[in-house]
Amino acid sequence: MSRVAKCIDNGPMEGFWGILKRERYYGKRFTDRSTLVKMIEDYIDYYNNKRLQRNLGILTSMEKHEIYLQAA
Fold first, then answer.
1. A Pfam family name for this chain (predicted)?
2. Structurally, how many domains does the chain consist of?
3. Measured between alpha carbons, how far is 8 from 29 in angstroms, rounded to an integer?
4. What is the secondary structure of 44-62 as a DSSP string?
5. What is the pTM of this model?
Protein backbone atom coordinates (compact mmCIF):
# COMPACT_ATOMS: atom_id res chain seq x y z
CA MET A 1 0.00 0.00 0.00
CA SER A 2 1.25 3.47 -0.82
CA ARG A 3 2.28 5.85 1.90
CA VAL A 4 0.36 9.09 2.13
CA ALA A 5 1.76 11.72 -0.26
CA LYS A 6 4.35 9.26 -1.65
CA CYS A 7 3.06 8.51 -5.13
CA ILE A 8 6.42 6.98 -6.13
CA ASP A 9 5.48 3.92 -4.01
CA ASN A 10 2.88 3.07 -6.64
CA GLY A 11 5.36 2.93 -9.55
CA PRO A 12 6.07 -0.82 -9.55
CA MET A 13 2.36 -1.70 -9.59
CA GLU A 14 1.65 0.84 -12.31
CA GLY A 15 4.42 -0.81 -14.33
CA PHE A 16 2.95 -4.28 -13.76
CA TRP A 17 -0.52 -3.20 -14.92
CA GLY A 18 1.00 -1.55 -17.98
CA ILE A 19 2.79 -4.78 -18.91
CA LEU A 20 -0.36 -6.85 -18.32
CA LYS A 21 -2.43 -4.57 -20.52
CA ARG A 22 0.18 -4.53 -23.29
CA GLU A 23 0.72 -8.30 -23.29
CA ARG A 24 -2.79 -9.62 -22.60
CA TYR A 25 -5.50 -6.94 -22.73
CA TYR A 26 -5.17 -4.54 -25.66
CA GLY A 27 -6.86 -5.80 -28.82
CA LYS A 28 -8.93 -8.43 -27.00
CA ARG A 29 -12.62 -8.54 -26.17
CA PHE A 30 -13.95 -10.11 -23.01
CA THR A 31 -17.53 -11.33 -23.03
CA ASP A 32 -17.99 -11.17 -19.26
CA ARG A 33 -16.29 -10.15 -16.04
CA SER A 34 -15.35 -13.69 -15.02
CA THR A 35 -13.37 -14.20 -18.23
CA LEU A 36 -11.44 -10.99 -17.58
CA VAL A 37 -10.76 -11.93 -13.94
CA LYS A 38 -9.54 -15.39 -15.02
CA MET A 39 -7.18 -13.80 -17.57
CA ILE A 40 -5.75 -11.51 -14.88
CA GLU A 41 -5.30 -14.38 -12.40
CA ASP A 42 -3.61 -16.54 -15.05
CA TYR A 43 -1.33 -13.66 -16.04
CA ILE A 44 -0.29 -13.01 -12.43
CA ASP A 45 0.67 -16.69 -12.12
CA TYR A 46 2.59 -16.51 -15.42
CA TYR A 47 4.29 -13.24 -14.44
CA ASN A 48 5.49 -14.59 -11.09
CA ASN A 49 6.42 -18.14 -12.08
CA LYS A 50 7.27 -18.28 -15.80
CA ARG A 51 8.02 -14.83 -17.26
CA LEU A 52 11.78 -14.22 -17.43
CA GLN A 53 12.88 -10.70 -16.56
CA ARG A 54 16.15 -9.10 -17.65
CA ASN A 55 16.29 -6.80 -14.64
CA LEU A 56 16.28 -9.89 -12.39
CA GLY A 57 19.19 -11.54 -14.22
CA ILE A 58 17.03 -13.56 -16.64
CA LEU A 59 15.12 -15.18 -13.76
CA THR A 60 11.46 -15.34 -12.89
CA SER A 61 10.19 -13.28 -9.97
CA MET A 62 9.77 -16.42 -7.88
CA GLU A 63 13.29 -17.69 -8.66
CA LYS A 64 14.75 -14.34 -7.57
CA HIS A 65 12.62 -14.42 -4.42
CA GLU A 66 13.86 -17.93 -3.54
CA ILE A 67 17.50 -16.86 -4.05
CA TYR A 68 16.88 -13.87 -1.77
CA LEU A 69 15.38 -16.10 0.94
CA GLN A 70 18.32 -18.52 0.78
CA ALA A 71 20.78 -15.66 1.21
CA ALA A 72 18.96 -14.23 4.23
1. rve_2
2. 1
3. 32
4. HHHHHHT--BGGGTSB-HH
5. 0.76
